[in-house]
Task: inverse folding
């Protein structure tokens, strides 16, 4: 009976710690009360507090710094990334469908958001996008290496483009979500030995088309260009993996 009650008890204490953080309006990096203070405030044992804090650390809600104390975490999407990566890799029976699901979520987000970007993106941000595309085009001609920065790959430039693209929205959650699904897709592709990107030159050209439409404030054209971009990735992702037995 004791073991059966541990889970619900720990979950309850987790919720209480989270509520304490919210009630006290603590922000990322702020110190939490000591274990003794939490024990007294919540009316639970030291072990119960420690178990709850460990569980919250796994969710990046708290950060335990051994020898220093416990602090409010960044509440990043790392747990989501790790969970989705495992969920996708665990689908041993259908790698292609699992990758397609991740890509579909990215596509829905980006194709939907690009219309709004067409009305909010500034000329300075368009110039940044132009610069990234120019570097992509240069890298496409040098075997995928970005000569403007040490250790940067074509994939790095592709990711930078999408990060800059949605900056004008002023929504902190958007780049975090896009980065999360991007990371999951890359991790799974790498683990499965897939090379799902179209040729660099093709990718650079599709990104150029997106910027051209945005320059013209053509929301529909930008949306079409983004959809074409994803169609190319999806076509490659549907291919059989190479180098995997």
Result:
């Amino acid at each position: 009976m004791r073991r059966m009650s541990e889970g619900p008890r720990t979950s309850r204490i987790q919720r209480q710690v989270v509520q304490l953080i919210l009630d006290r309006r603590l922000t990322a990096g702020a110190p939490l009360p000591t274990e003794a203070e939490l024990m007294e405030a919540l009316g639970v044992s030291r072990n119960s507090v420690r178990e709850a804090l460990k569980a919250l650390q796994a969710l990046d809600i708290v950060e335990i710094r051994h020898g220093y104390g416990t602090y409010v975490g960044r509440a990043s999407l790392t747990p989501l990334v790790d969970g989705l990566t495992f969920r996708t890799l665990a689908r041993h029976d259908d790698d292609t469908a699992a990758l397609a699901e991740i890509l579909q979520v990215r596509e829905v987000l980006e194709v939907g958001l690009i219309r709004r970007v067409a009305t909010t993106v500034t000329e300075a941000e368009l110039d940044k996008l132009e610069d990234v595309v120019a570097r992509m085009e240069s890298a496409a001609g040098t075997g995928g290496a970005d000569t403007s920065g040490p250790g940067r790959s074509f994939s790095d430039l592709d990711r930078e483009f999408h990060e800059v693209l949605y900056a004008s929205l002023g929504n902190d959650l958007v780049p975090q979500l896009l980065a999360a699904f991007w990371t999951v897709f890359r991790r799974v592709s790498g683990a499965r030995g897939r090379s799902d990107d179209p040729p660099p030159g093709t990718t650079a050209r599709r990104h150029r088309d997106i910027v051209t439409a945005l320059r013209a404030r053509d929301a529909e054209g930008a949306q079409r260009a983004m959809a074409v971009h994803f169609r190319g990735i999806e076509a490659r992702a549907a291919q059989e993996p190479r180098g995997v037995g």
In short: Strands lie at 62-65, 69-72. The mean pLDDT is 86.
